[in-house]
Amino acid sequence: AQSVTQLGSHVSVSEGALVLLRCNYSSSVPPYLFWYVQYPNQGLQLLLKYTSAATLVKGINGFEAEFKKSETSFHLTKPSAHMSDAAEYFCAVANTGRRALTFGSGTRLQVQP
Amino acid sequence: DTAVSQTPKYLVTQMGNDKSIKCEQNLGHDTMYWYKQDSKKFLKIMFSYNNKELIINETVPNRFSPKSPDKAHLNLHINSLELGDSAVYFCASSLDRGRSEQYFGPGTRLTVT
Known about the structure:
The structure holds 2 protein chains of 2 kinds. Chain A is mostly beta strands. In chain A, 0% of the residues lie in helices and 57% in strands. In chain A, strand 4 (33-38) and strand 5 form a beta hairpin. The N and C termini of chain A lie far apart (41 Å). The mean pLDDT of chain A is 92. In chain B, 0% of the residues lie in helices and 57% in strands. Chains A and B meet through strand 4, strand 5, strand 9 and strand 10 of A and strand 5 and strand 10 of B.
């Protein structure tokens, strides 16, 4: 079964600094990978997805992620953090057997002024 | 126009009661899901329906019963509520059973006292 691991439950950056949120996956087949964002008291919003078309995926709000097969990673980055980026971020993999998403444990991003 | 909607947004009830949460999607999707998010923000699949047919039924107590009257609706009924059922429940939908992205509702925060 596919799985994802998010390294770091909390990440704190200064406004304007680089954001890097880490996600590693485990999959015996080419994975479909997703990043979702959850703002306080809201549902999950899709940031971006990887479906094997291109290794560098651009998403909404200036985020992007790079699929690296050799490192089994799909890290999320943003060149310059904004206060509004403060939220919980989830990496997920589409589980081919069960047709559902398996989520990582989430990373809370704090942005300091 | 809300893509995936849930009612109610908040639900506070006592142990032993029976309650329902309703979900509707207007995206024309074939597959709908229920996820549970615990107090540590961990998300886990509970059920999935495809065209009104149950396709995923995780290890969830029998007190939880999903019902899909049509492919745009997926309701969750919970009998004999317990303290441990307190969580946020998210409905989601996707285009098909494959590995397409899922769209989430705003969540229902259930508190059992």
